[in-house]
Amino acid sequence: MLPYNSSSLSTEVSDFILNCFVRSPSWQHWLSLPLSLLFLLAMGANATLLITIRLEVSLHEPMYYLLSLLSLLDMVLCLTVIPKVLAIFWFDLRSISFSACFLQMFIMNNFLPMESCTFLAMAYDRYVAICKPLYYPSIITDQFVAKAILFILARNTFLTAPIPILSAWLHYCGKNIIENCICANLSVSKLSCDNIALNRIYQLIVAWTLLGSDLILIFLSYTFILRAVLRLKAKGAAAKALSTCGSHFILILFFSTILLVFVFTHIAKKKVSPDIPILLNVLHHVIPAALNPIVYGVRTQEIKVGIRKLLRRVGESSN
What we know:
single chain; mainly alpha; Rhopdopsin 7-helix transmembrane proteins; 3-stranded mixed β-sheet; 12 helices; Olfactory receptor 56A3-like; GPCR_Rhodpsn_7TM; Olfact_rcpt; olfactory receptor activity
């Protein structure tokens, strides 16, 4: 096992050591079981949702295509982060290669804003469905979804790709101990012998530009939705309209609440244990992923019907 405390190395760094919860070693014992269960739940639930949407013809609609994209992003983020964390917990495999570290950094920095942008597209879908129902079939089409997905991929890849590139270009000639469970940009770049001011500024600008603008536009969408719902006079119309976007709103709360808590604890890091922001960062990659498909499965009748049909098919094929 590689040592946790490295002095100055005479050669270029070829790998890093993830110092995951070394200040709180007992956390690894009680976190490993719930984290592994959450990971299995996230992978299983999202895979079930994707298969259900793929096989059920009635779910071949724009809203469910966007939900499929969200499930794919959740699965990739989980696979990028959680298996490595569990390998550290169970087998003390703290070493990660230089290339694997920056690949993980790229996926995390790219896919989290993609999730945020997907939520924005879903909010627009609900806005058109409730505020402009007569125009919904002509606005929210398969072509709209294709263009939205291309925009999500292009916007986030173009703006976030420089983060791992700038970090990889730095000169790592000394410490190789990352005080984190994951290859977060600032946790890695601060090990460099170079000035990292550009890395810090660029990440801050991109994070607030992408996530901040998405959250503001989502908030505006729901403001318009709420205003339109309150104008509905037909009996039960308001409750029905709100229920159609309730699941989506709950998913946004899962995503944004953990993110905001992480930001605030990072700001107040002098008042909390340094391991708390690290824990929240890890959980942010698995809790929304585990809960998103469950919320949609429980609250959306069409998906519940599709899952029942899928389970029936599996049961029939096994007999």
